[in-house]
Each structure stands twice: as structure tokens, then as C-alpha cells.
Amino acid sequence: LSKKNATMENTLLIFGSVPMGGGVVRGPLVKVLLGQLVLPLLSTAFAPATPSPVFALRVALAHRMYPGLRRLASSGTITMHTGQLPAERDSEPAENKTVKVHSSTCALIPPDEAWGQLQALRYQLEDSGLYRWPPHVNLLYPFVVESDIADTLEPLAAALKHIPPFTVTLAEFGLFTHKKTATLWLRPDISPDPMALEKLQQALQDAVPHCNEQRLRHGGQFTAHLSVTHFDTAKMPISECETLRDSLQKTWTPVTFTCSEIHIMTRSGQRGQFRRRARLFLGGGGGGYMTH
């Protein structure tokens, strides 16, 4: 590999396997933008609290990128595939404070320890959003342009001040059907207050009123969901999607976690990966926020 004339367009993917959720997830683990930085593709791409094999690999590559890649490849531990990605630019306007963009979101992200089963299922079902999105429930999406995020932190934190943490259980599958596609998703069941997530989303929307797409598209109702995968119904008819949903339901073990914070994420370009930019804490933890 040569460092000469390396740009953000020169990209290398590293494939391998990582233990997750009692099993092994195989696939693209790390994307290296030659001469620039290393981007893990699974859960560690989103700043986990717990180190993992992918995180360790990221550190190793960051220090000795090219010699390290040669050694790993020659050992047979990983397979390297080089390719080209087109240059990407964000053309989002920064002046209009009411602009909403699909390159940013305010979302609920399960904690790291809840990822294993969810990511394994998304990988099994070949979710097209596996690289771009972490497991998440969109609360305000589309959201403000990245340059305006700082202006939303105080009002959003204030909106969460009186909302205590709550328990989320992902137990039941649902299916959204669209004109040419279908989306398989998991419904968040909330306790002890079943309306806590509804109240949280409404409080956030009241703080940034123009980011109202989650309700506007559903007749004023908020339908919380964690997307699992997407289907092209020309290749997989709705009836087959429903059969798969019912089959998964029979063997699914519910995933339960505590929601004590939400996240703001952004991505760059159409192929960019969503990355955490800020954490907003629910009131039981004292409220407030932290930027990344």
C-alpha cells in the first residue's frame, strides 16, 4: 500500500469476525480511509464505553497502519479488499434555522451491552442500514443542520429535565409496508410509565418545533420503532415478509435496557456513517448534556 497521493476517496475495507451476543458476527469490520483515519463498522464505530476487538484493531491500525495491515493480511486473520468511493460533500444550508436535514438526528440508542442480539439479527437479515446506522429509535428526524446543533442543546436538555429514566423492552416485531418496500422493526415497550417515550418525544419536539416529521407523517401520532431491516417487495412479497416476521417472533428473546440518555448524531455525505455528537441526559441523572 502506498501513502502517496492518499485522499479521502481511497478506501480500504477489512473483513473478519467479532464475538457479539454469545455468537460471532462476520463481515466488514473496519473502513480505512487511506492516509486519514480508521473507521470501525460495527458497534465500536459509535464510541462504546467498553473496549472490544474492533476497538483494539482500530488503535493498532492508527499507530502502524500499513505494516500492521500487511501482517494481518499475510496471517490470514483478515481479508483486505480495496476500492474507490466517490467524493462526498454536504450541501446543507447553514443560515436557515428552520432547515431539517436527513444527515442529522436526535435518537434513542440502546447501551452497548444491548447491541449484540440486535446487531446479529440485522447482519443475518442483511440490513442495508447496518453500516450507516447504529440500533436506534428516531425521536427527531430529520433534524437540524450540524452547524445549528449547538443552539439546540440547551432547550433540549431543559425539555428532558423532568423526565426520569425508564426501562425499554424490545419484544414484539412489526412491519411497515410502503409502495415498493417494507420495514421490519421492533416495538419499544416502556415501563413503569408506558407513555414515557411518547412524553419524551413530545418534549423534544416542543423544544425544536420545526423538527416534527416523526408526528407529521403519522397524523400527529408518534410511532416509536427500532428498524431491523428493509425489504424490496418486488423481490420479497409482503406475504413473505409477514411470514418471516411471525417466524422471528416465535424464537425472539426480548432485549431489555434502561434509557437514561439520548443522542444527537450526524453523518457526512450520502454514504456517511452516523456518529454521536452529543448526549442529553434524562432528568433522573440530573439533566444536562455532553458533547463528543
Features:
single chain, 292 residues, alpha+beta, five-stranded antiparallel beta sheet, four-stranded antiparallel beta sheet, 25% helix, globular
Short précis:
With 292 residues, the protein is of the alpha+beta class.
Could you outline the blueprint of secondary structure elements for this entry?
Layout: E1 10-20, E2 23-33, E3 37-40, H1 53-63, H2 65-75, E4 79-84, E5 104-108, H3 115-124, E6 137-140, H4 149-160, E7 166-177, E8 181-191, H5 196-207, H6 213-216, E9 226-232, H7 238-251, E10 255-259, E11 261-266, E12 275-281, E13 289-291
Antiparallel strand pairs: 1-2, 1-4, 2-3, 5-6, 5-11, 7-8, 7-10, 8-9, 11-12, 12-13
Helix pairs in contact: 1-2, 4-5
Question: What would your notes on this structure say?
Answer:
This protein is α+β, with helices and mostly antiparallel strands and 292 residues long. The protein is built from seven helices and 13 strands. It has helices at residues 53-63, 65-75, 115-124, 149-160, 196-207, 213-216, 238-251, and strands at residues 10-20, 23-33, 37-40, 79-84, 104-108, 137-140, 166-177, 181-191, 226-232, 255-259, 261-266, 275-281, 289-291. The protein has a five-stranded antiparallel β-sheet. Strand 2 and strand 3 (37-40) form a beta hairpin. Helix 1 packs across helix 2 (65-75) and helix 4 (149-160) packs across helix 5.
Per DSSP, the total helix count is 7
List low-pLDDT spans: 1-13, 30-52, 55-95
Describe the sheet with the most strands: 5 strands, antiparallel
Radius of gyration computed on alpha carbons: 20 Å
Secondary structure category: alpha+beta
What is the overall shape? globular
- The whole-number mean of residue pLDDT values reads 77
